Amino acid sequence: MNLLSLSLLLLLVLSPTALASDKAKGEGHVPTKKCTLQNFQLLKVGTDVKTVFKDFGEPLRDIGSGIHIYEYKLADDSIIRVGCVTTVFYVDHIQGKQNTRLAGPAIDPNAK
After folding, report:
1. Nearest residue to 59 via CA among 70, 43, 48
2. Model pTM greater than 0.85?
3. For the segment 6-38, what is each residue's pLDDT rounded down to a tens digit?
4. What domains appear along the chain, each with residue ranges and CATH number?
5. 101: alpha, beta or left? (left if phi > 0; alpha if psi -120 to 50)
6. Residue 95, SS3?
7. Are 89 and 45 in contact (CB under 8 A)?
């Protein structure tokens, strides 16, 4: 196998991995005009995740383990986290160290 063939083979093998890692980092995330705090405040527990994607676009990333926790970045650099599997369990607004529950069960301040 010559050097050109080997280079092409490596390119084909490594390109999908690079693209996947870019998506995981939120590369290419384009929030819709609906990505505002006011619109996320209207999200209700039980909303279908397909509706969330339709209304707000693809999330910046999924930080969940066990359930999906989709992150959306707002214009003021605060973060919205939508916890769900097939429907929304909760919606949180993160601004600095402040975490405000917009929908779902109350946050237990004593939980670690």
Report:
1. 70
2. no
3. 444 444 334 443 444 444 445 555 656 678 999
4. 1-29 (no CATH), 31-112 (3.30.1450)
5. beta
6. strand
7. yes
**pLDDT tens per residue across span 50-77:** 999 999 999 999 999 999 999 999 999 9
More confident residue, 13 or 108: 108
- String of DSSP letters for 30-87: ---TT-SHHHHTT--TT-BHHHHHHHH-S-SEE--SSSEEEEEE-TTS-EEEEEESSB
The torsion region of residue 24 among left (phi > 0), alpha (psi -120 to 50) and beta comes to alpha
